Automatic annotation (TrEMBL):
PROSITE patterns hit by this protein: PROKAR_NTER_METHYL
Region (Disordered) residue spans: 84-108
Organism: Paucibacter sediminis
Keyword Membrane appears in the UniProt entry: yes
Taxon lineage: Bacteria, Pseudomonadati, Pseudomonadota, Betaproteobacteria, Burkholderiales
Transmembrane regions listed in the UniProt entry: 21-40
Name the record gives this protein: Prepilin-type N-terminal cleavage/methylation domain-containing protein
UniProt xrefs under Pfam families: N_methyl
UniProt keyword annotations, A-Z: Membrane, Transmembrane, Transmembrane helix
Amino acid sequence: MPSHLHPSRRAGQQGLTLVELIVFMVVVSAALAGVLQIFVQAGARSADPMIRRQALAIAESLLQEVQLMPFTFCDPDDANADQAADSAACSQPENLGPEAGETRYAGSTPFDNVNDYHGFSMSGIRDLSDSAVSGLERYNASITVAAADLGSINAGSGDALQITVTVSGPGGETISLQGYRTRHAPNAAL
């Protein structure tokens, strides 16, 4: 049948063949799948900033808690703690780690010196009364305290401590903060 007699093939009109239409649909589908994949990834990672901010807030809080503790040559329970100019003047010298029976939580013998926090860790964030903090059950924290060089202070003197707080949260998010605490002779309770 001549094209002038066929209604779909009139002069000046062009259309898509079935093959062209299928190729077009395949190309558009591939492009759409790529764009949707980007949206899915962005949506899945949108909670990460909140988790990171929460881990940072926990780390900052714990670092401040440790830095506000006394840093004396003697255990603060020692009668000489306020006046001792070195550990030789102490009946109970302060060492890294808690003394027997001490714990971070309020009770009969809570931590009372920066050094006591060395090696402390908790699974699920707990307040000072040892109560779980709602919503923070999936976070973990650990603290290390070590002698440090700081400006003109030599690590061997023991007059400067580096405090490292590491907090891990859901999805493997980990934050690590470091701070320092110095001893002010003879009394470092401030």
